[in-house]
From TrEMBL:
Keyword check for Transmembrane helix: yes
Chain segments annotated as transmembrane: 52-76, 83-101, 107-128, 155-176, 182-205
Entry keyword annotation includes Membrane: yes
Name of this chain's protein: Paraquat-inducible protein A
Taxonomic superkingdom: Bacteria
One Pfam match: PqiA
UniProt cross-references to InterPro entries, sorted A to Z: PqiA-like
Keywords: Membrane, Transmembrane, Transmembrane helix
Organism: Paracoccus alkenifer
Length: 241
């Protein structure tokens, strides 16, 4: 751990690389309402907001509710000449759960349902205990790192776009009615986009480090001694004061 404003070129401690252009910046503590931007490309590097953790937790819980609705509610209904059939994503998964299409079904459910739901659960696990001045949960650093790794692989919006393209072709052969699950998926995309707007990775990492969570050992903190005491309490099962 090093104090804010210091850095080490050999280990990279105290330095932050812009995720867009890789320009190096000296890491410093930001107050609520301040914004740090890259000096080269102007990408936002950090932007603490009051109540952001609570908003992200609420959006993550909303995503889980919408995901459950998207799985079990009717997704669409196709009818022609008086005959119709409605199905849900869960019903589609069961229909293709045998034979050589089963791996494709598992992959689809994993990328479309499993990964977004897992990422939402990880965000709730990491951020819910830290609302206000609460200490982080055990292994919060590892959980948030995993949620960041899963971010590019959450493909609910790709599924909706692909389904919409397919329905345009099917609409010429039969009457297609969109069910509540389709609109739940659309709502899921909007909620996910809002969550990404409120989620500032640098701010979450800084909060985890300041409150004593274990990360990579090179974190910049305002008071290294206070962080060391918090880590000791967390390691022994106590709560930080």
């Amino acid at each position: 751990m090093i104090e804010a404003g210091q850095f080490d070129l050999e280990t990279g401690a105290g330095l932050m690389a812009c995720p867009r252009c890789d320009a190096l910046h000296v890491e410093d503590e930001l107050s609520e309402g301040e914004t740090a931007r890259c000096i080269r490309c102007a990408k936002v590097l950090g932007r603490p907001r009051a109540g952001a953790f609570t908003q992200i937790v609420a959006l993550s819980v909303t995503s889980l509710v919408l995901m459950i609705a998207a799985i079990f509610f009717p997704f669409l209904e196709i009818s022609r000449m008086g005959f119709g059939n409605a199905t849900s994503l869960f019903g589609v998964a069961l229909a293709f759960s045998h034979g050589w299409l089963m791996p494709l079904t598992v992959a689809m459910l994993g990328f479309v349902v499993g990964l977004p739901a897992l990422r939402a659960l990880l965000l709730v696990y990491v951020l819910l205990p830290m609302r206000g001045d609460g200490p982080p949960a055990r292994h919060a650093g590892e959980a948030f790192r995993l949620s960041e790794l899963l971010r590019p692989w959450s493909m609910a919006e790709i599924f909706v776009i692909g389904t919409s393209v397919a329905l345009v072709k099917v609409a010429g052969l039969a009457t297609v009615s969109l069910g509540p699950a389709f609109w739940a998926f659309c709502g899921l995309i909007v909620v996910g986009a809002a969550s990404n707007v409120f989620t500032c990775s640098a701010t979450i990492w800084d909060t985890l480090e300041d409150r004593g969570a274990f990360t990579d050992g090179r974190e910049v903190v305002a008071d290294p001694q206070a962080v060391a005491q918090r880590r000791s309490r967390i390691a022994t099962g106590g709560r930080a004061g």
